[in-house]
Every structure is written in C-alpha cells, then in structure tokens.
Amino acid sequence: MTCSTVFVAVIVSLPFLSIMATNPPSTCPCSDQSLCDPVTRKPAKEVFVFSVGGKNWKKYDWSKVTSIVMFNDYDAELMCYAHSKQVKVLLKGDFPVANLTDIKARENWLLDKLRKAADWHMDGINLDIEQPINDSSIQQKLLTDLVEQTTKAFHVQNPHSQVTYDVAWSPDCIDGRCYNYKAIADAVDFVFVMSYDEQSQIFGPCIGMANSPYNKTVKGVEKYLEMGIPANKLVLGVPWYGYNYPCLNVTEHDVCYIPKVPFRGANCSDAAGKQKDYSEINRLIQNSTTGRKWNDEYKAPYFNYKDSKQVYQVWYDDPQSLKLRYDYAESKKLLGVGMWHADALDYSDDKMAQKQTKEMWDALPHQSHGVTLE
After folding, report:
1. Which of 61, 130, 200, 283 is the most exposed, having the fewest neighbouring CB atoms within 10 Å of its CB?
2. CATH code, domain carrying 161
3. How far is Cα 265 from Cα 201, in angstroms, rounded to an integer?
4. Tell me, what's the pLDDT at 4?
5. Is the predicted pLDDT of residue 6 greater than 50, yes or no?
C-alpha cells in the first residue's frame, strides 16, 4: 500500500450527504514515502496524547504513546515521526452546536475534515465538542447524528482510521453538556473521559479543591460503565496541570476560600483560579510556605504560597496521584489512559526539570505489545 493510493476520499451516502469527493493524493512530506501510509496497528491498550504545538514532541517518551492528537497547527514533521513509531495521528474536530440544524454547514465541515485527513496523511479525528446542549433537545439528536456520520465517513475513506470523542468526567449533564453519551460511545472507536476540571461547577462551599479528585473521577467512570458503555471503549484522561487559587481566607485546616465566579448554573467554579502546567507548578512550589501536602480524600497533592498581597493554594497531580488513577483504569480493564496535555512538562535541559519530566512519563503504563492489525 502506498501513499499515492491510500487517501482517496469517498463519502458514503449519509442522511444529509450523498456526494462523492475525490481527493487527489498530496505530496508526501516524509523522507520515507511509506510513512504517509495509514497506521494499521491497533494496540491492546491506549496511551492517548494531546500535543498543543511547538517541538516538545521530539522529547516525548514515544515508547508509551499509541495515539496523538494535533490539537493546534498541523506539523508534517510530527506526523512523519509518529508514523515511524506506528503511532496514529489525529485531527482535532470541533463544531458549533448552534449550526447543527444547518445541513449544509455539517456537510461542508465533514468534507473539510476528510480532505485535511487525506492531504495531511492523518489517521482519523478526535471530536472535541463541549458546548452545552439541553437534554432531549433536537441538538442532542443532531449531535449524535453528526458523530455517527463522521465515524462512517472516516471509516469509508480509511478503514484503519480512528474516530474518538472527548466526554466530560461524568455523564450527568456536566456544564450543561446533556449528550446521548451511550449513543456517542457506540458510534466512535472509543471515548476519552476528561477526568479533570471537575470543579467547573462548585455547588457547595466556594473552596479550592483537587482538579481531579479520585472519588469523583471514579464515580464518573462508574456511571459510564453503568450506562452500558464497555470498559474497552473508555480511555481515562488525566490532567498534567493544576489550579492556582487566590485565597480570601485560609483556615487552620488548610481550607482555602475562593472568590465566587459563577459558571453554567453554579455560584462558584475553578475559574476563580488559574490553570498552571505541571512545569509551572514545580517552579511555584519552590516558594511554598507549606511544602507539598497530601489530601487523602482526593488522593491529590497541594501546597500554599504567598506573595506581598495574599495566600494562594495550588492543587495539582503528580506521579504519585496519577499512578493511582492509572492503576484504577487497569483494575477496571479500561482501554487505556491519556492526558491533557503532553506539553505541560518542562523539556528543557535543566537537570531537575528532566528528572520531573521523566517521572511523569515513567508513571504511565507501557504499551501492550499484544497488538493486532485492524
């Protein structure tokens, strides 16, 4: 199979789409032309990686990666390198839910994604549609239709393609996202459970808390399983970042009261804080007034620090807390794990940074070598 014959886009007849689109093969940018062929390997376990741009990917631990999403700009060099490691490379796919009733808009969007996948020698698409939709609304059904149509079209264009969907940490209408999660999971190859930003809606006291508290993460995954979504269609996504909260007051038991910032029906939210990559957090902790502390309920680390104006509390995840979540995914026989995002680490030549970055990659499970062809 050569790159000149692989990506000829053929659109299957769909409820709203019944045209043929022929994409002439684009020039392969790889020095080895076979690297533009689709990846046919299907690993027994997934390590699903988001890359947000730049050249940090050159320092990823590629012995761990099975799929990578180019979340921002296309990088031909990354595609060629990932394919040399038999790693699937995916487009990012977003679509405004306000346009779901527009048949032509959906048709044009899907055609555009198929053409890009063909031109760029990509292995599929990761659907990241996170806008609010009311339960039992027409948008809910139309979103499911779009997901089903996208999966069918990509699989026709490239039988080895992979279509995935990013879902909230729980199916309980988180942030107003009342989707038909079971139907979406049935349609795609697997879903990536975004088990982070779990304080986007704080309905209790307005306090700083873990980004991915273990108890809430487990509860969310269990609800997906209870819906009848097979474990081998769930990838547990974890955060390689945390939140830096300004404290209005800190109690003797280290409870940090945060400003009230409403979000989608909740009086308080993690928007009161600022997202900080793991690399930034490791710099902040050097000025900590408490040192690294551990919350056993959330199974997550945190620390306090202060500047000339006030006290801050930082909640984050590190190799110890992440390993507990990876072990949980393994215990439930989930398809795998992944993170948002791989560029949150410090890939500089600083010795301490190199150690911290290696520890984060080392905590991930190794790829299973029991692989098959799709």
Report:
1. 283
2. 3.20.20.80
3. 8
4. 36
5. no
- pLDDT band, very low/low/confident/very high, at 371 (cuts 50, 70, 90): low
Tell me how far CA of residue 125 lies from CA of 35, 61, 93, in angstroms: 18, 22, 6
In a domain, 373, yes or no: no
Could you tell me whether strands 311-315 and 300-306 are parallel, antiparallel, or unpaired per DSSP bridges? antiparallel
| Predicted local confidence at residue 7, as pLDDT | 41
Structural domain count of the chain: 1
Please return the burial class of 189, using the count of CB atoms within 10 Å of its CB with bins 0-12, 13-18 and 19+: buried
Say if 286 falls within a structural domain: no
Q: Classify residue 281: in a domain, yes or no.
A: no
Q: Which structural domain, as residue segments, surrounds residue 344?
A: 3-242+316-367
Tell me which of 130, 330, 359, 374 is the catalytic residue. Answer: 130
* CB-CB contact of 155 with 70 (8 Å): no
Percent share of the chain, pLDDT over 70: 91
Tell if the pTM clears 0.70, that is, is over it: yes
- Helix 319-331 / helix 214-226 crossing angle, nearest 10 deg: 20
177: amino acid identity, one letter: R
Q: Which of 40-44, 62-66, 125-129 has the lowest mean pLDDT?
A: 40-44
Q: 203: how many CB neighbours lie within 10 A of its CB?
A: 8
Report yes or no on 289 lying in a domain: no
Instruction: Give CA–CA dist 293/301, Å, rounded.
Output: 5
Instruction: With cut-offs at 50, 70 and 90, classify the pLDDT of residue 26.
Output: confident
Average pLDDT estimate for 211-224: 98
130 is catalytic: yes
Phi, psi torsion values for 164, nearest 5 degrees: -130, 160
